[in-house]
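Are you able to produce any protein sequence you like plus the matching backbone structure tokens because I've never seen that pairing?
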Amino acid sequence: MWWVKDDGTYLMSNGQDPTGTRDDNGRLPHVVHADGWGPGTDARSVLGGDDFRESLDLATPVFEDGTTLLGMLREANTQDATRFVLKATFDDTSMELTYITE
């Protein structure tokens, strides 16, 4: 999965295109904008000036108990969550992820 900042900021699938899921305009539903940071917003105040794409590995454990980002997403799905809030905190050498479901 990619975390992208350009026109807003969002998570984007970099996996295979699912068959038969294009919308009426031919676009694939593989982008989820951050809450309050959709198209037309300026994320530079929070994320800096340059656009970026940061890879988020779905299979690498992000917690000491072995929990992966994919595991978090699957768990949210079993809870019938309508929102998955992923919080990234980072410094010069690392990034830490936490999440809640609603």
The helical segments are 44-47, 69-78. The first strand starts at residue 2 and ends at 6. The chain has two domains: 1-56, 57-102. The chain has a mean pLDDT of 80.
